[in-house]
Amino acid sequence: MQYMLVHVVDDELAAAKPWDGAAPASLEAWLDQTIGRGVNLHGSRLGPASDATTVKVRRGELVITDGPFAETKEQVAGYDLLECGDMEEALEWAAKHPTAQVGAVEVRPLYGDQPPRSLPELARGKRRYMMLVCSDPAVDRDELGQITPVEPWVEEMDGRGARRFGSQLDEPARARTVRVRDGQALVTDGPFAETKEQVAGFDILDCADLDEAIEVAQKHPMARHGILEVRPFWPFQED
Amino acid sequence: MALSGGLSGPALAGAFRDEWGRIVAALIHQFGDWDLAEDCAQEAFALASQRWAADGTPARPGAWLFTVARNRAIDRLRRAATYQAKLKTVAATAMTEGTDEGADEEVPPDEGAVPDERLRLIFTCCHPALAMEARVALTLRALAGLSTAEIARAFLVPEPTMAKRLVRAKHKIQNAGIPYRVPPAGALAERAAGVLAVLYLLFNEGYSASAGADLVRRDLCDQAVRLATVLVKLMPELAEAKGLLALMLFHRARQAARVDSKGDLVRLQDQDRSLWDSAAVEQASRYLAGARDQGEVGPYQLQAAIAGCHASAPTAGDTDWRSVAGLYGQLADLTGSPVVELNRAVAVAMADGPEEGLALMDGLAGAGALDGYYLLPAARADMLRRLGRLPEAAAAYREALALVRTEPERRFLEARLAEVEVEF
């Protein structure tokens, strides 16, 4: 069973470099352990919320907005995809991750079965983006009718190498969130923030630039019903 | 305008206005680094302020400045630890060994024309993935060369706030991968409309600034006109750019007449038309004709055409209201805006009489799209007054007064209400 660990920290901290307070040494150890045991399929730090762009289509018009899908004090700062026996095991790993000490780790099961795969190398001239597929309660579902199936989009984007991985997530009610304070792990039910908009799935995109990522997002069926947040992976090479 | 870096002299001020954006755009294109581009452009102008006073202005100031700035950039990259990495991206462009030696001492003579990459810069600064306020600020910094302090003053925010806004926007361009290019044909029309919206916002910021406001704020109008002129030159196929430039020029032509000695706004029909700038009107008319000749109608062109009808009337009474009403009709079809419909109703009333205007306004009031908008009852009141239906006019003025938010408009409505109350 695969679980997505969504790392959330205060946005100021998320934008800081190096990642103060999150103890890089313990992050190294956590990665050594999870990768060493074959638990960690892939993961990355993401660019700060100020580098995010949301994409939606309303009444046939493309709407592009600067910033993340929801204005929360804590912001998504990274993710890891784990292959675990059950939720308890995933929560144990989450509690050991340094972000659980400075922020929180939301653990969400992936919907349905996925073969455990790692991500391919990033091709030259491409950039990697996390696309969060979010619900938008402001959209009247009845008015728009049935949601178009996502499969043709997946097929098209996989085919042209723009989509590298992706999955629907189990419903927010099945999420658990871990915070470690004073050495004590506190596990709460539900996602990290009580926002109207909720993450319903994600896709990892390899695109030439933000314009291509926006075009890919715009074509996703959820662009009409929800909000797509496109966020760059943290650049490997800082200059 | 006060330029940063202690620049002085008319030749230098002119070069700054004409060349800054061009130099920054070309440097970003070559080196992919916004801060490097701005810093080196700044240094080139600083050097010019020393040299030109002593040695005279070079034959081609733009080429002189670009050569110095580019050599500074290469020099800095050489010294930087990441030189090797950067060199790979620079290698493709024409960088020759040795051009940088003693850039401070020996400025090579003119080296061909400065490549004009400003269109890339305009589209990148106005990218829709940036916040609107960031687009405006970046455009003023990178293309017009305003300093962070000047932009902060113009938008009435503290300088650190503006500095942070600019830094975040540049980070986003770099980290999120906003491309430095003119969008491909499929997206060009939509993105060009976005660029025009930024320039129009810039113009309106300056236009709405009061006479007493900071000079840099009023100067925003000139910056917007200048940038729109550049856009018209670089994208002659874009009819709406000409339309927007014409609109700005028509408005600016009336600037001296639109505020009275007390600082109150003067309505169009009451303005002293001898104060209008006839040269600007003529220039605007030429751009409007150019847009019209391209056979493509857009909202800016229509608004400019309406402004043109007013500008070409020697007195308010000479206004061709039938044309104005027709243009508002076209604009309403294009935008679906009820405010435009209201303007059309006013023009119809001027052309065909208050009864016709009132019928259209009553239709608008019934539709409810302008509920809470004081100008609708105010316009209805005016129709009723002219029809001699004074008690109804008074009621409509009171309705408008309950909704009005600004003081000069309130004073105007109160005066009108007093007039009709005296008469019945």
Please tag this protein with its features:
heterodimer, A: about 240 residues, Alpha-Beta Plaits, six-stranded antiparallel beta sheet, 8 helices, B: about 425 residues, Rna Polymerase Sigma Factor, Chain: A, about 70% helix
The CATH superfamily name of chain A is Dimeric alpha+beta barrel
What CATH architecture label of chain A applies?
2-Layer Sandwich
According to DSSP, the number of beta strands of chain A is 12
CATH topology of the domain at 10-99 in chain B: Rna Polymerase Sigma Factor, Chain: A
Distance between the termini of chain A: 38 Å
Tally of helical runs of chain A: 8
Please give the domain count of chain A.
Answer: 1
Tell me roughly what share of residues is in helical segments of chain A. Answer: 10-25%
Blueprint of the fold:
The complex is a heterodimer of chains A (239) and B (424).
Chain A: E1 2-10, H1 11-15, H2 24-36, E2 40-45, E3 53-58, E4 61-66, E5 74-83, H3 87-96, H4 99-102, E6 104-109, E7 127-135, H5 141-144, H6 151-159, E8 163-168, E9 176-181, E10 184-189, E11 199-207, H7 210-219, H8 222-225, E12 226-232
Antiparallel strand pairs in A: 1-5, 1-6, 2-5, 3-4, 3-12, 6-9, 7-11, 7-12, 8-11, 9-10
Chain B: H1 10-31, H2 34-55, H3 61-79, H4 83-91, H5 118-125, H6 132-143, H7 148-154, H8 159-175, H9 185-208, H10 215-218, H11 220-234, H12 239-253, H13 278-293, H14 299-311, H15 321-335, H16 338-352, H17 354-367, H18 375-386, H19 390-403, H20 407-423
Helix pairs in contact in B: 1-2, 1-3, 1-5, 2-3, 5-6, 6-8, 7-8, 9-11, 9-12, 11-12, 12-13, 12-14, 13-14, 14-15, 15-16, 16-17, 17-18, 18-19, 19-20
Provide structural commentary.
The complex is a heterodimer of chains A (239) and B (424). By secondary structure, chain A is an alpha+beta fold. Chain A has helices at 11-15, 24-36, 87-96, 99-102, 141-144, 151-159, 210-219, 222-225, and strands at 2-10, 40-45, 53-58, 61-66, 74-83, 104-109, 127-135, 163-168, 176-181, 184-189, 199-207, 226-232. In chain A, strands 2-5-1-6-9-10 form a six-stranded antiparallel sheet. The model of chain A has no long low-confidence stretch (mean pLDDT 90). Chain B is mainly alpha-helical and 424 residues long. Chain B has a domain at 10-99: Rna Polymerase Sigma Factor, Chain: A, CATH 1.10.1740. Helices cover 68% and strands 0% of the residues of chain B. Chain B is built from 20 helices and no strands. Chain B has helices at residues 10-31, 34-55, 61-79, 83-91, 118-125, 132-143, 148-154, 159-175, 185-208, 215-218, 220-234, 239-253, 278-293, 299-311, 321-335, 338-352, 354-367, 375-386, 390-403, 407-423. Chain B is elongated and about 85 Å long. The interface between A and B is medium-sized, with 23 and 20 residues.
